[in-house]
Amino acid sequence: MPNTVQIVVDGKTLTYPLVEGTEGERGVDISKLRAESGLITLDQGYGNTGSCQSAITYIDGDKGILRYRGIPIEEFGKNADFIEVSWLLIFGRLPKKDELLRFRSRLTANAHLHEAMKHTFEGFPITAPPMAITSAMINTLGCFHPEFFSLKDEEVLEEAAARLISKIRTIAAFTYRRVNGLPYVYANPKLRYCANLLHMMFSMPYDDLVVDQEIETAMNLIFILHADHEQNCSTSTVRMVGSSKANLFASCAAGVCALWGPLHGGANVEVLEMLEQIHSGGLTAEKYIEIAKQKASGVRLMGFGHRVYKNYDPRAKMLQSVCEKLLKKLKVKDPLLDIARKLEELALKDQYFIDRKLYPNVDFYSGIIMRAIGIPTNMFTVMFAIGRLPGWIAHWKEQHDDPTSKIARPRQIYVGPVNKHYVPTEQR
Ligand code: SDX
Questions:
Q1: Residue 1 predicted with pLDDT over 80
Q2: Ligand 1 and 371: CB distance under 6 A
Q3: Active site annotation includes 145
Q4: Nearest ligand 1 atom to alpha carbon 47
Q5: Which residue's CA lies nearest to atom 24 of ligand 1?
Q6: Ligand 1: centre distance to CA 377 (Å)
Q7: Quick check: CB of 367 below 6 Å from ligand 1?
Q8: Alpha-carbon distances, residue 236 vs 259, 263, 294, 313, 394 (angstroms)
Q9: Which residue in 54, 407, 70, 39 sits closest to 244, CA to CA?
Q10: CA angle 235-298-342, nearest 5°?
Q11: 295 touches ligand 1 (CB under 6 Å)
Q12: Among 30, 116, 132, 368, which lies 20 to 30 A Cα-Cα from 376?
């Protein structure tokens, strides 16, 4: 197999090296293209452009494969432990017992926020979108931990990662309490990560929530399945911001903003709104599918399709079975689940979706699970951010530790006006 490619530009043959990854993916290294030819490449949305080489997550979109540090995500389903997977993603291997214990105790010791941050929460209107509060509070968190603005060694990074992963959970819970006018509930050091989140969200000072083991397991799996997904929009944003040597908190706060978009992490909210729209009697599943197939409608089957998966998103498969099991265990009969099953059944045999390789993605079932747990729709994408945070930290670290990394600075093809001159106001 040749390890170079050639392009002919203005009669000149230029040769560029092929880079091959450990799973056989190949890319053309064009880092010298502009210097040698004056050309740049143009790739709207970067669907054909690699921004880096990474050892964190591997996706095979055609085969529906997702592996974290080489481990298939299906293997995390048995004893789902989000904190163990977070350590794996950030440090590149499964933690030894003492390492995991140390990481857990760091999370427990850092679940609280600086008391002054409560005033910041109070500064938001109760109508503030939770993703806006989450992004702002992650940056605010950085103001209380300036010692983590530069992360020189792994020990300090582990402490910073533990604090961020622990405190984003408290930020999410306090955000929920703020927008609902409820008193803040502090973390209980005896509870594990996911149970503590639900405790801080739903306990009352006079009535501690007892978290069902099945619900705790479902939350662990939701966070694990959202933990990383290679160069998706929000992770690429974290890398872009981090490439200017911006600190970890600022980079992750930017990631929250990218995740907020309805085409990305915000899709889980859109899925619920779509299901509720059908349930409220406005539309049947069949009618909705027909509308989603008409481009002019601007309507999409939310939770379907993916930039990379042209097969069933393996996360959607796992979340579908979590959804079925949990609702059965909780004896929840959710008509929206029946509608979701109907939409999936119709779409999977509809030529429009088959031709375009549109399958359920991670967002299709996650919302129904969170709704069954009692998490309100406007907090769904915040839950996604909690899950994705370890992936953002892992990618920020991978780039930060790479001595060859440079500030990200894409080029463009200029298509604006040419040779214009300044015209004084009275002559315009
Ligand atoms: C996430 O990148 C990641 O890894 C993201 C993520 C992660 O973990 O970080 O996996 C999380 O963001 C999942 C995706 C969540 N978004 C949605 O569910 C929103 C609905 N899906 C789409 O908008 C769409 O599928 C995207 C944005 C996800 C992917 O879009 P693509 O691959 O760029 O596809 P496209 O927009 O170029 O569309 C190709 C064709 C078009 O039709 P034609 O022009 O060929 O006639 O497919 C159609 C589109 O109109 N199409 C859909 C559709 N998705 C694509 N038609 C109806 N419903 C849809 N959902």
A1: no
A2: no
A3: no
A4: 33
A5: 305
A6: 21
A7: no
A8: 11, 15, 31, 20, 12
A9: 407
A10: 85
A11: yes
A12: 116
Supply the pLDDT for residue 317. 95
Scan for tokens 């993603």, then name that residue. 89
C-alpha distance across the termini of the chain, in Å:
62
pLDDT value, residue 13: 96
- Name which of 253, 217, 193, 267 is nearest 393 in CA terms: 253
Q: Which atom of ligand 1 is nearest to the CA of 304?
A: 60
What is the distance in A from the centroid of ligand 1 to the CA of 264?
A: 9
Which residue do the tokens 């539309």 mark? 283
Measured by CA distance, the residue closest to atom 56 of ligand 1 is 300
- pLDDT, the chain, mean: 96
Q: What is the pTM of this model?
A: 0.95
- Whether the predicted pLDDT of 134 surpasses 70: yes
Burial of 233 (0-12, 13-18, 19+ CB in 10 A): middle
Phi–psi pair at 423, nearest 5 degrees: -120, 125
DSSP-based helix, strand, coil % in the chain, nearest 5: 55, 5, 40
Q: Are 104 and 83 in contact (CB under 8 A)?
A: yes
With 0-12 CB in 10 A as exposed, 13-18 as middle and 19+ as buried, what is 60? middle
Question: Catalytic one among 81, 264, 363, 395?
Answer: 363
Please check whether residue 15 is in contact with residue 4, taking contact to mean a CB–CB distance below 8 angstroms.
yes
